[in-house]
Amino acid sequence: MKLYDELAEWWPLFSAPENYAEEAAFFARLLAEECKPAPRTVLELGSGGGNNALYLKSKFQMTLIDLSPQMLAVSRTLNPECKHLEGDMRTVNLARTFDAVFVHDAIAYMTSAADLGAAIRTAYLHCRAGGVALFVPDCVRETFVAETKHGGHDGDYGRSLRYLMWVVDPDPTDTTYRTDFAIILRDHRGDVRFVHDSHIEGIFPRAEWIRVLHEAGFEPRTLTDEWGREVFVAQCPS
Ligand SMILES: C[S@@+](CC[C@H](N)C(=O)[O-])C[C@H]1O[C@@H](n2cnc3c(N)ncnc32)[C@H](O)[C@@H]1O
Fold first, then answer.
1. What's the predicted TM-score (pTM) here?
2. Residue nearest to atom 17 of ligand 1 (CA)
3. In a shared domain, residues 51 and 150
């Protein structure tokens, strides 16, 4: 995916850190409520540009894992005090546990039940007894909406980015959908270029999520957050 590779340095203009303050505050509250004693250490899988970590790090000691070295570099600039590690959420093993594990929108890149199961098992492996894991997919099968959105931001020295995002589900019977991004980049010289990036993302029915979470050893439940997303709250039994 070009967005997390050759375009990674543009990530803060694609998805600005300041837009994450409210939802990160919600996740921090949820982690504090669901995890007793209060969580101190949090592992984030698929931490991307570190926009959630920017806010979570004032409350928790964050360890950030991502597949993309370029996205980790963006996050290191924003969050130099956090530990960053390159790894795949399906296979990484840090040989230690955390009070909580947080998996935000990056879970969308699990496109098969086998991949989803592997990522959930990674979360379980790293969660201490009595701890909690939060999974925040953009949608589940029941809440999927085919739609078009746009966004982007202006940066320093005249750099700007705008995008159009087009979400479709060509085959509602499988576990994937498709998001095409039309991205327009204006550099510091004023030169404009256009990039098309196509992402295949995973989508699973709520009951499949719950089944896989149980199978890994979690005690799961769901709630709907104020942005209409289904959040899976998975307790690790004491
Ligand atoms: C939408 S971005 C995450 C943005 C993040 N929520 C933030 O706060 O900046 C998705 C990230 O998932 C990462 N990713 C995709 N597949 C992954 C995998 N198998 N393991 C770890 N990270 C993965 C990508 O490299 C990308 O950085």
1. 0.97
2. 67
3. no
